[in-house]
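# nightly structure sweep
# worker-07 picked up a monomer target from the shared queue
# config: single-sequence mode, recycle default, output format = structure tokens
# input follows
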Amino acid sequence: MRGGRSDMVVGSFRKFTDAIRGDDGGGQVQGFLRPIDTDEIARRLKLDETAAQRGALDLPGTDTFTLDSTEQQITQALQAEWSWHGADLINNLRAYAARLIAVSVQTEYAALDLVAQNALTKLGSAHHRAGADLGPLKEVYVSLRDELAEFRQRHRLRRAARSPTRRRTTVGLLVVLIGIEATLNGIFFAKGDEFGLLGGIGTAIGISFVNVFVSFAVGLFPMRWMNHRNYVVKLFGFLLTVAGLTAIVAVHGFAAHFRDATAIVGKDRALAEAVKSLHATPFVLGDQNSFYLFALGIILAFVAMWKGYTFDDPFPRYGAHYRRMVDARETYSDEHALLFDDLEDIKEETVRAIDSGIQRIPLFPQQAASIKSERNAHLQSFRGYEASVESAANLLLARYRDANRSRRKTPAPKHFDEPWKLPHSFLSDASVLTVIAEPETPPMDPNAALEKLRLMAQTVLSEFNDLLVQYPHPTQMP
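# output follows
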């Protein structure tokens, strides 16, 4: 009958372990609650042989009250297995605790609140930075923009200011014009100069410089003044333009007569002779090359005059007003981008994180309940496992004691009739109770958390928008 009872215990235990491990034998947790092979333990300890030998020697003695060495080996083997699984149980319970924290409304809300507060702190700091850096730049830009608008309105300008030609290119062209004219004039003036070509170029450089500079100045100033809305300014510009053109023609006429005089009377007396000739017969020249000199100077003068006219917007001071406004706008825009590009990223990341939390939090209660259900099933499985450890230990002890009794001549010790129990249960261990303990504070209401998170997101957006309204991008200014 005792053998039948043992077979029933073994069969029940195998069904229990199979239910835990699953049909594939893999188990719920790798290596966790693995079945106890009592036959293997009995073979390893040579339980039947040892029991027969010790029973034949009437060991342990009848008056023994504690487990003998073989019984201790049995219980120690099972206690070692039980301790290993107990440590694994604590690790698994800690994993469940971590999973519960991950789906905790309080934890999620605290993390998102920290993200929102960091964003608000940075936005608040940006307010101070914007006031110190962007504020003055904005004032300058708005002032110059309004000044340009007033200028356009006052002068009835509806078109945009025209972009001036490249300043460096213009200056370079003027230098080239002076060089070309000076070289050609030098060739013409070389005749009659005691220093030949070098002397002629020296004389021509002065004439060429005056020609190009005066022509450029006439185009840049009085010719553009003729576009002014004020008729007095128009008239003044017209008179100065005529005077400038007359002076340019006179200079080149003088240069042509001076060239003739140099060839006739020499360089020392050429100046007086040229003035006399220019006054007496201004349109009569003694050498055909002098006509070439005059024509070349006029052509280059008109080129320089055109470059002066297109050096800026045709309407006087319109280009200067426009460029000052553009420079101020670009400076303000660059500083605006340095500040708001980072703030835009912070705002977007914060709102995205809060929105993600708002979507996840409604699922947390159900997920937490599922995790707790898994944990409770885990604890119940371990409770059954501890019972199976005691059953296996008592099965092996009974096998040893029965074999020992069958060979004894003296009565067996009284403790042979006492079942063995585990020293304690891991389920009552302080570390286990700490891990599975519920928090002292009641759980946060998900709906309240969602409402607060929505308010957080709105606060971040409002703070960012307020800053953007106070310091808008130039393209968004009214």
